[in-house]
Write a structure and sequence with these properties.
The chain is an alpha/beta fold and 382 residues long. Helix content is 39%, strand content 14%. The chain contains 16 helices and twelve strands. The protein has a seven-stranded mixed β-sheet with strand order 2-8-7-6-5-3-4, sandwiched between helices. It has a three-stranded antiparallel β-sheet with strand order 9-10-12.
Amino acid sequence: MTEQDWGSIYKELGARPVINAIGSVTLLGGSTPIPEVKEAMERADDAYIPLMELEEKAGEAIAKMANVPAAYVTSGAGSALTLATAAVMAGDDDEKIQMLPNTEGMKDEILIQRRHRYWYDRCLELAGAKLVDFGSDEGTTREDLEQAIGENTAAVHYVAMEQTPDPHELSLEETVEVANEHGLPVLVDAAGQIYPLENFGKYVRMGASFQCIAAKYLGASQSVGLALGSEDFMRKLSLQSFVGYEGRRIRGVGRPQKVDRQEIVGAVAAVRHWMTMNHEDRLAKAERMSRTVLTCLLGISGLDAAIMENVIGHQPFGVRLNVDPAVTGMTNDDVVTRLKEGDPPVWTRVKEGEDFIAIHMFGLRDGEEKVVGERIAALFDG
């Protein structure tokens, strides 16, 4: 692709394409499907297929590769969370399935550690569930969970963030143990926990009833997610889905969360590729691109730049930037704004709760890492 062709499809619509130095974020399109996924999706155009059957067979293939009992392809990880909460409340009772989000007569409370409250817990509420905090901002104990369990408790939610382990949270091991004692399922949001490979499905193998994964991180379409879990839980989850709505003629809350046949086979191809690819090469490329950015920034007065060494999860390595306003006359937010104002715009961000700019390689085409580094450096010229 020539520089002139870059982003032309968007420019024809009057929209402005950007260089994505943030990483895999929904706001910018999430992912670029890998060639193996594009090929599988194109082959899926050849014929139609009953989607109840395709979901079943695709789930079997993914479950085998992930070493879990069962799997289901959803409309993103957020959809998996919504369908999971519907499943713990309505189960396989068709009358209750069609009542949601009205939860009258159902256990509808999902327990969540206060330290685990996060932007995406909203997805747990969409089917009608109510979130109930336990623990405090300072920490969570086993007793906090035990005391929070009540007659309306439907499940316990857990957010897996292995890149940044929290010493003050209640561990998943203890969460599962307490939940099992009370006959409660544990739902795990593990959207980005895809590497090391043993993390893929690990939480189900640890005893959780369900975990979700965002398949965009594997090179699938942005709009695809994976639900992994026990056979019984995945069966109940499937009953809440758009396929159940049409195939069974039972009007569940998952109807708007449609997945097409091309995306489903693409998700299988993405998991197959992820499980068999050379991850050492993948990590080496991410580190090499990160060091290219860093090289452009070394020696700039007032700019602290360093490599991020993390390789766990979906966005390995990267560059961490911090600007000293007293030296440069700019803040981190000023740098973010000025990069967006360039041509083409370079998108970065200061993530909520952080005090630095993180440059990630996930969304960069080969060669764009040098452009990003040079564009940042140019802000400090003179």
